[in-house]
Automatic annotation (TrEMBL):
The chain crosses the membrane at residues 80-101, 122-139, 226-247, 268-287, 293-313, 325-341, 363-382. Belongs to the nucleobase:cation symporter-2 (NCS2) (TC 2.A.40) family. It is a multi-pass membrane protein. The keyword Repeat does not apply. It comes from the Eukaryota. GO terms for cellular component: membrane. It holds the Pfam family Xan_ur_permease. The keyword Metal-binding does not apply. It is found in: Membrane. Keywords: Membrane, Transmembrane, Transmembrane helix. InterPro entries: NCS2. GO terms for molecular function: transmembrane transporter activity. This is Nucleobase-ascorbate transporter 10.
Length: 431
């Protein structure tokens, strides 16, 4: 720890009028760039070291006795996430949805020479309106008349009579589809889905805070957000929606594209969404957007969210083989395991998990088909169990940087970024 020194040797105040703070935390600096990786036994121009005596030490083994070295403080027992384990979580929150975008995206290039930020702020609005109008012209002129059914379903703007069949005014009410039913198997499957949604939403929270130029999200704020997601899922069940609530990955990417991290903008947008949801024609009008337009937007949004996770690597030591293994192994399993589950279901029509309990099969399938969930679970487990060589403080994984943001009151800027409006902060106090 470094101590402040302004030239005053006494224990009283400073003659210069400044405020000396002793035992101040040392400034955190990025890990240095190294042209050669350390820890290599031999390189190209030197032979390997020759052993003598017993060769029994050549058998590789992982020592589990030192797995608690990363839990030498109460703080780390409360928080297992580090920048290293958050990288796959945030990256696969967007990267795990790649199949929704590029498969229907038509590459294009547009270059604007406008000094004002009009094209940055309103690029999404202008591009959607232009392509949407072009699709309407093609639909009205009969360009899709002889096209395949798949092309008509994805490119036409009047598919299934959405606008003509929607009512002008529709007010939802609780239990409109009948009384609720309860089955234990479905409840357990929904618990697994809620667990997956909580992890993926956590990645969205972290990416949103990153692009909103805020400090890293404290643990209590993440818990608060997950709790409100549960309350929204409860309302969704009461009003008969087919899906629950989760944080919008698209909004996080839109925030990065427009660089508008204002909470007031989100509040006004939510008010407009609630109001216009009562107008059936208005909702059907937006539902007529062709799917390739949505897929093109996904390519931009998910790319921004994925890059937010990769940005946290600046706090990790990329010269460490332990860091490289955790990062690469979590990325590999985060891509391969969900893809295996999907391909197995497409080929056989059933889950690769075969037990006598259908609810257990659904639980395992829900968890292992989520890219972000698989990646973060693997990263957290490896980060907490693999032996730390010459890294007792956890600096290689970035935990020394993350510690001061775990609790709400550790950083004075948390109150400015994460305080709830309308005095709700007193009802839901952070810790």
């Amino acid at each position: 720890m470094s101590t402040g020194d302004c030239g005053n040797g006494g224990g009283g105040g400073c003659e210069c009028g400044c405020c000396c703070v002793h035992n101040k935390m040392e400034d955190i600096k990025p890990h240095p760039v190294m042209e050669q990786l350390p820890g290599v036994q031999y390189c190209i121009n030197s032979p390997p070291p020759l052993r003598s005596g017993s060769y029994s030490s050549g058998v590789p083994a992982l020592s589990n006795d030192s797995r608690y070295h990363c839990l030498d403080s109460k703080l780390r027992r409360l928080r297992f996430l580090t920048p290293l384990s958050m990288v796959p979580l945030m990256t696969f929150t967007g990267l795990g949805l790649y199949y929704l975008g590029f498969s229907m995206y038509l590459p294009h290039y547009a270059k604007a020479k406008i000094k004002r930020r009009v094209c940055d702020r309103y690029a999404l609005l202008f591009s959607v309106a232009f392509v949407w109008g072009y699709a309407q012209i093609l639909t009205s002129s009969g360009a899709y008349r002889n096209a395949s059914s798949a092309t008509q379903a994805s490119c036409r703007t009047d598919r299934a009579g959405l606008i003509t069949g929607a009512p002008w005014l529709y007010i939802p009410y609780p239990f409109q589809w009948g009384r609720p039913t309860f089955q234990a198997g479905e409840a357990f499957a929904m618990m697994a889905a809620s667990f997956v949604a909580s992890l993926e939403s956590t990645g969205t929270f972290l990416a949103t805070a990153r692009y909103g130029s805020a400090t890293p999200v404290p643990a209590s704020v993440v818990n608060r957000g997950v709790g409100w997601l549960g309350f929204g899922t409860l309302l969704s069940g009461l009003f008969g929606t087919v899906t629950g609530c989760t944080a919008s990955v698209e909004n996080a990417g839109l925030l990065a594209m427009t660089r508008v991290g204002s909470r007031r903008v989100v509040q006004v947008s939510a008010g407009f969404m609630i109001f216009f949801s009562l107008l059936g024609k208005f909702g059907a009008f937006f539902a007529s957007i062709p799917l390739p337009i949505i897929a093109a937007l996904y390519c931009f949004f998910f790319g921004y969210v994925s890059s937010a996770g990769l940005g946290l690597l600046q706090y990790c030591n990329l010269n460490s083989f332990r860091t490289k293994f955790i990062l690469g192994f979590s990325f590999f399993l985060g891509l391969s395991v969900p893809q295996y589950f999907r391909e197995y279901q497409l080929s056989s029509g059933a889950s690769p998990v075969h037990t006598h309990s259908r609810w257990f099969n659904d639980m395992v399938t829900v968890v292992f088909t989520s890219h972000a969930t698989v990646a973060v679970l693997v990263a957290v487990i490896l980060d907490c169990t693999l032996v730390r060589e010459d890294d007792e403080g956890g600096n290689d994984s970035g935990s020394h940087w993350w510690e001061k943001f775990v609790f709400y009151n550790r950083d004075v800027r948390s109150h400015d970024f994460y305080k709830l409006p309308c005095k709700l902060n007193k009802l839901f106090p952070p810790v």
